[in-house]
Design brief:
Layout lengths: L9 E7 L7 H12 L5 E7 L11 H4 L3 E2 L5 E2 L1 H10 L8 E3 H14 L9 H19 L4 E6 L9 H14 L4 E8 L12 H12 L6 E6 L5 H11 L6 E5 L7 H7 L2 H8 L8 H11 L5 E8 L9 H14 L2 E8 L6 H5 L3 E4 L8 H13 L4 E4 L1 H13 L7 E2 L9 E4 L2 H4 L9 E9 L3 H8 L4 E3 L2 E10 L2 E2 L4 H6 L2 E7 L5 E6 L5 E4 L14 H17 L1
Parallel strand pairs: 1-6, 1-7, 2-5, 2-6, 7-8, 8-9, 10-11, 10-12, 12-13, 13-22, 14-15
Antiparallel strand pairs: 3-4, 15-19, 16-18, 16-20, 17-18, 20-21, 21-22
The structure holds glutamine.
Glutamine binds next to helix 15 and strand 18.
Length: 547
């Protein structure tokens, strides 16, 4: 027993081997799904890099920055955790080595280690374990899912691995188990599953003192009996402890694969838990089993479009809608840094301009917005997509020819999108950002109807209150609101505490809506984000009309 509490907490550690990008986050989340309706499941992610968080990293390298309610900037894995576990994570669940060192340095300067030599072992490894125990107690978790980013053998991960080895003695071996996710390639020309990299990865983990209880081997096909046997032999496990992680096109089907192979029941037995009820899982299966008819084509515009991971949550939010409407959604990645392909535009049923930063591709995005507005193509603007919709409208409809955002042209005489005075004083990168969940009040409008329909708002008289996450620096300039509203672009939602523009919609258009927030971050399979739901509904209607 580790904890001061009488509750017996359980721990599952997930490491990766051979290569990164095997989907540890999806695996962790998929396992969590089965426990989430009976237990308080708390995922935690350890990353070896020295950045404090992924907020300042290039999304090309690192994928989407996933913002939590408390404003923490985490990575895509937190998106999977929240979507599969249907809960909200917080800052302390995302730990980078940068954060650990910062804390060690702070404690050392503060005199907490007075007289001692501050060392990687035990001070750093103790701190890592302290973080785990502390949050598990604070949140009163039943099951901690601890994922180590990257792969075993990365030098930067060694202290996490060592801390997690030590954790076993601290929490009792009956309360912890270790799962290792690896890769089995089938080299071209050989056409045979090769288990050697997996064997070596397991051995490497064992030399660091962790003997995995379960192995999942990712492969383009089902693991053969022979591969399982070999892996089991080298890992000192039985064949039942080796699972196939076959490639899938739809990540929501991953839990089913694990369930059918018995992994979930084996983990639960190993942790000494009674048989699971799996109710949420069963509800998922019903949703996923629905037949999907027809298809709509939706464009996502932007400069990072060649890296789909940058917009992972936008894509997921569309997937959620696709299950709800029983329709297929074909996503078109529209790069706006080059000349826009007009022929592609004509085939679209809806357009999304998602979040973004900087100058590149801006005029292309504005051109696409004009197309959506004039041709009554359903449009959803997210964050930058709201700001650019306002700029476009001011230029083309309100005749303010040089309307712009300060971010794009710091010298513009008509800053429709500006930085508010209080933000200008903040110098630390990230400090001037409006980050995390904020409440907004929404007037009677299409947007309000959607939030009410999906029941994720509080109703207050004529208005409804919603909470969405933010990650941006600039705001709609209050001085221009009257001008754009008079021409038909209405502000239908303001932030509760500061009267900042949060939601807009265009009159006399089937669906032209935008928000300063990132509603995609809260979309779930069970409850899609309302504005995406509205977009797909409008896209289906558009498709019907076109036929
Ligand atoms: N670049 C814009 C801003 O900082 C929008 C940010 C975003 O789309 N996330 O305000």
């Amino acid at each position: 027993m580790t904890t001061t509490n009488s509750k017996q907490r359980k721990f599952l550690v997930i490491t990766g081997g051979v290569i990164s990008g095997l989907g540890k986050g999806v695996t962790t989340s998929s396992i969590g799904l089965f426990f989430s309706d009976q237990y308080k499941v708390l995922p935690m992610k350890f990353d070896g890099y020295l950045n404090t968080d992924p907020g300042t990293m290039n999304p090309f390298e690192h994928g989407e920055v996933f913002v939590l309610d408390d404003g923490a900037e985490t990575d895509m894995d937190f998106g999977h955790y929240e979507r599969f576990l249907a809960n909200s994570a917080n800052k302390q669940q995302s730990i980078t080595m940068g954060k650990i060192y910062q804390e060690i340095r702070r404690r050392e300067r503060h005199g907490d280690y007075l007289g001692k030599t501050v060392q990687l072992i035990p001070h750093v490894t103790d701190l890592i374990q302290e973080k785990i125990i502390q949050i598990s107690e604070e949140q009163d978790a039943d099951l901690m899912l601890i994922e180590v980013g990257g792969t075993v053998g990365d030098l930067e991960n060694d202290l996490f691995i060592e801390a997690l080895r030590q954790l076993r003695a601290k929490v009792g071996s009956e309360n912890i188990c270790y799962l290792h996710l690896t890769y089995v390639p089938i080299p071209y020309g050989v056409n045979e599953q090769k288990t050697k990299p997996t064997q070596q990865s397991i051995n490497l983990l064992q030399t660091k003192g962790i003997w995995p209880d379960f192995i999942i081997a990712r492969c383009t096909e089902t693991l053969t009996e022979n591969s399982r046997k070999k892996i089991a032999l080298f890992a000192g496990l039985t064949e039942q402890d080796v699972y196939s992680g076959e490639d899938v096109t739809n990540i929501y089907t991953v839990p089913k694969g694990y369930e059918e192979q018995g992994l979930i029941d084996n983990i639960s037995t190993k942790l000494g838990l009674p048989p699971l009820k799996k109710e949420r899982y069963k509800r998922w299966q019903e949703l996923l089993a629905q037949e999907r008819k027809g298809s709509v084509k939706i464009a996502i515009c932007g400069k990072y479009t060649d890296l789909e991971d940058s917009y992972a949550s936008v894509v997921e939010a569309l997937h959620h809608c696709s299950f709800h409407f029983g329709t297929n959604i074909e996503i078109v990645w529209l790069e706006t840094s080059h000349t826009i392909n007009k022929e592609i535009l004509k085939t679209l049923d809806a357009i999304i301009v998602p979040g973004g930063f900087g100058n590149r591709g801006i005029e292309g995005k504005i051109e696409v917005i004009t197309y959506a507005r004039e041709n009554k193509i359903p449009y959803l603007g997210i964050c930058y997509g709201l700001q650019l919709a306002v700029v476009e409208f001011a230029r083309k409809v309100c005749n303010i020819k040089d309307a712009n955002s300060l971010e794009i042209d710091p010298k513009t005489t008509n800053p429709l999108i500006t930085m508010l005075d209080e933000q200008k004083k903040v110098v630390n990168l990230g400090g001037s950002m409006r980050l995390g969940a904020y409440e907004a009040k929404i007037k009677k409008s299409k947007i309000q109807e959607l939030y009410k329909k999906l029941k994720i708002c509080k109703e207050e008289k004529e208005e409804c209150i919603v909470s969405e996450r933010h990650r941006h620096r600039y705001e709609v300039n209050p001085e221009y609101i009257k001008i754009i509203e008079e021409k038909g672009l209405k502000v239908v939602g303001y932030s509760r505490e500061r009267e900042l523009v949060e939601f807009i919609e265009l009159e006399n258009h089937p669906y032209f809506v935008a928000t300063q927030a990132h509603p995609e971050l809260k979309s779930k399979l069970e409850t899609p984000a309302p504005l995406f739901y509205g977009l797909v509904q409008a896209a289906l209607e558009h498709r019907k009309k076109e036929k």
